[in-house]
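Figure 6 in text form: structure in, sequence out.
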């Protein structure tokens, strides 16, 4: 991570006081039953390894720099990401659960992740790992059902595994297997989520 080298090589008076590094909930691996918070160990799959290596580089930053590692969930916004891929499918009346639909979906509204990053930059109480996820993860089938209701479209046609792998590549494991991640640290710090429930978030984005 070149930014860490730049910070460490900067003169003491010119060095920033805080570094916020975005990583991902892929760090935890996947599970249908386990609830992951910031104290949970890393998983063993490809995405977990990528996240571990990314974070290992970030922690090499000068000890005088306050480091915040935000493990992002799936960020929901209209202009990109997962929703941008799903909206056209629903509009063609072909939307439905991805994979089994039983897997957990750990999400966060774009407005909330922006606010969380701002707090991490400006509030010295924010340090170490913070999960960037909404307080209420949902099963993917429920998320797709809410999306269909908001768009006025059915949610009935399951998307097969091979199609997800073609669209998401290595990231398909998070969608197909899922993970239930909660923002224990953000809640402890008193962060106020604008969107705690996925139905509210989808209405704000899609209507």
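Output sequence:
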């Amino acid at each position: 991570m070149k930014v860490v080298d730049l910070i460490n090589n900067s003169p003491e008076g010119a060095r920033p006081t805080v570094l916020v590094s975005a990583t991902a909930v892929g760090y935890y691996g996947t599970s249908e039953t386990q609830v992951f918070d910031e104290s949970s160990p890393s998983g063993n799959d490809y995405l977990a390894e990528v996240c571990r290596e990314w974070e290992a580089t970030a922690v090499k930053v000068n000890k005088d720099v306050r480091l915040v590692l935000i493990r992002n969930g799936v960020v929901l916004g209209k202009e990109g990401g997962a929703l941008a891929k799903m909206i056209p499918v629903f509009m063609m009346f072909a939307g439905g659960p991805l994979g089994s639909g039983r897997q957990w979906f750990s999400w966060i509204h774009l407005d909330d992740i922006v606010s969380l990053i701002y707090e991490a930059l400006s509030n010295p109480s924010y340090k170490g790992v913070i999960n960037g996820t909404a307080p209420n993860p949902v099963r993917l089938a429920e998320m797709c059902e809410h999306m269909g209701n908001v768009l006025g479209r059915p949610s009935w046609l399951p998307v097969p595994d091979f199609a997800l792998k073609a669209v998401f590549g290595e990231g398909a494991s998070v969608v197909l297997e899922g993970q239930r991640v909660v923002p224990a640290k953000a809640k402890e710090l008193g962060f106020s989520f604008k969107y705690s429930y996925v139905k509210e978030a989808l209405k704000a984005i899609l209507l």
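Caption detail: Residues 2-206 form a domain with the Rossmann fold fold (CATH 3.40.50.720).
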